[in-house]
User: Fold this.
Amino acid sequence: MSILNDGLEEELNWVTIPEENSRIRGVLENADGLMQDIAYNVIIGNHHESDRLTKEALDKGFLANTILDDGLIAGMSIVGVKFRDNVIFVPEVLVAARAMKVGMKHLEPILSASGIEPIGTVIMGTVQGDLHDIGKNLCGMMLSGAGFAVHDLGVDTKPDEFITAVKEHKAELVGMSALLTTTMRNIEKINQAFQEVGLRNKIKTMAGGAALTEDLALKMRCDGYGKDALGCVEKAKELLEILNQSEPVTN
Ligand code: B12
Assistant:
């Protein structure tokens, strides 16, 4: 176990909710010093350093998943708390998001490399009105890494764009990301739109994002919810299995 570097020790002072603090501290204290440096550079938005250190970590043999969880995501979780508590504002968050993205650029090919026939096809998108994409991208990467073919529609995705993509790619699964309470209802609209074109019973839909709980996702007529990227992959596999076991449906 390593101790925290000075920068992170100071940053953790901003995390004032005890359970939140001990959860994030636990991840960082158990992480290598290099992961801590990556996390710190995400927090302060130093994209040159997060870029360099992520490369260095890969060269040193750290697993892409470790760098993601213990470095980039751990850093972003402190950014999230500071933003929520009005310690920092949109510009600082954008700079941190850029620092996270340059690191992710190195991890993506590794997380996505599967080289085998896709086990299923997923359409991913952030719902209409919502521009957050970091979590969705992470889920997409993890799904690719788990062997799914992933078609990412980006942010601010309208219901008809989901429908077109499902038809075009003959997708079995749809993943919707929603981080804003103001626009999360669009999840229900997307499910409704699938119903109206007769596709709803042929696919499985799942959702996730900071605004959601499992209860809300199911109330908005999704088949599943994922708390994080790992949960997204597990849910996708579970839903695919259910779909494969069920009789073909005619709408
Ligand atoms: C980064 C960020 C931004 C960046 C986004 C950059 C980008 N390219 O994505 C910027 C600065 C642009 C931004 C803007 C805004 N933001 Co913002 N943002 C955040 C922040 C700090 C972090 C989000 C993030 O990337 N987290 C890291 C990723 C890894 O986590 P995640 O997205 O939750 O994803 C994980 C899981 O949820 C899940 N998941 C995600 N998607 C999916 C999909 C499926 C299918 C599944 C199964 C799982 C899944 O797996 C992911 C990986 O583990 C959050 C705070 C927070 N704690 O979430 C606020 C937050 C989401 N933002 C918020 C707000 C209010 C805004 C603004 C309205 C601010 C403003 N006044 O302008 C705007 C909205 C712009 C818009 N129309 O979308 C609020 C939302 C509050 C609410 N409940 O509605 C939050 C919660 C902050 C807060 N506490 O106030 N934001």
Q: What stands out?
A: The chain has two domains: 6-112, 120-245. The first strand starts at residue 120 and ends at 126.
